[in-house]
Amino acid sequence: MGEATLATDLAPDKELKKLEAKAFRKKTPEVIPEGAPWNEIEEGFLKRRSVRKYKRKQVPEHYIKRILEVGRFAASQGNCQPWKFIVVRDKDMIDEMERYVLEQMQLMVSMSPEQAAASIHPVPYGLLTGSPEGAGIKVFHGAPTLIFPLMDTRGIGHPEIDLGIVGTNIIMAACSLGLGTCWVGFAETLNAGDWPKRLGVEEPYALIEAIAIGYEVGHAQSNYVQRETHATTWFEGGKQRTMY
User: Fold this and answer.
1) For the chain, what is the domain count?
2) Which value, to the nearest 10 degrees, does the dihedral of the CA atoms of residues 124, 126, 132, 136 take?
3) Any bridge partners for residue 146, and if so which?
């Protein structure tokens, strides 16, 4: 009698668990037709642009915290999460870093054209040498906030790829909040001075990039921009074809 009572008492719990499992069971997504409009996530990626001119208005602190949290959930090889973040929102500090990077870059372009061509990509070289006298370039584009995603050099495989993934999460989260972003590779130049120490960068972490964040001047992210198409080699059904 006691056993029967116990079984009866447990039955509702079992049924509840079955209902919960059924509710959380994933359904096969509905197939959208070919040529259907882009969804919200796709459209965000297609419209996002690197922003190189920002308003002086600072980004709310809780926005940056949200962005970093989305970054923290980025995919990584072996889920080793080979990153750590540094946030700089001090204008004087950003200005000082910018002056230092420009000084280092000017030293590089003062080399012979052959040496410069071997060490500097044509795009930044053109910016540095083609700017009006005394104008220089804005390394951080006037952004009020910088995020430095540091790379853990112990990461599995290629941690620099994981850093690119976490950076993509960051820039897309920022875009969803109405902010502009720009990857700044020049930031690596800070390694030549005492900036790693000042920023608290210690091994095994390395400073290799910065992400500028702020409110964009203009509406660069409101429209689609045509991009060059690339050939894709496609294998299926024992055949090979080229897709665009």
Assistant:
1) 1
2) 10
3) 88, 212
**Beta-carbon count within 10 A of 124 CB:** 16
What does the pLDDT average to over 142-148? 98
Angle formed by the axes of helices 40-47 and 159-176, nearest 10°: 100
C-alpha of 15 from chain center: 45
Confidence check: pLDDT of 84 > 60: yes
Residue 119 confidence (pLDDT) = 65
With 0-12 / 13-18 / 19 or more C-beta atoms within 10 angstroms meaning exposed / middle / buried, residue 173 is buried
Please write the tens of the pLDDT for every residue from 12-33: 677 777 777 776 676 778 899 9
Q: Are 181 and 213 a contacting pair, CB within 8 Å?
A: yes
d(CA 64, CA 115): 40
Helix (H) or strand (E) holding 24: helix 2-24
Residue 56 is assigned to a structural domain of this protein? yes
Q: What is the pLDDT of residues 120-138, one digit of tens each?
A: 666 666 666 665 555 557 8
67 with 174: CB under 8 angstroms?
yes
pTM for this predicted structure: 0.80
Inside any domain, residue 179: yes
Q: Supply the CATH number for residue 168's domain.
A: 3.40.109.10
Name the average pLDDT for the chain: 87
- Residue 204 placed within a domain: yes
Q: Determine, yes or no, domain membership for 10.
A: no
> Which residue segment(s) compose the domain that 72 sits in?
48-91+138-215
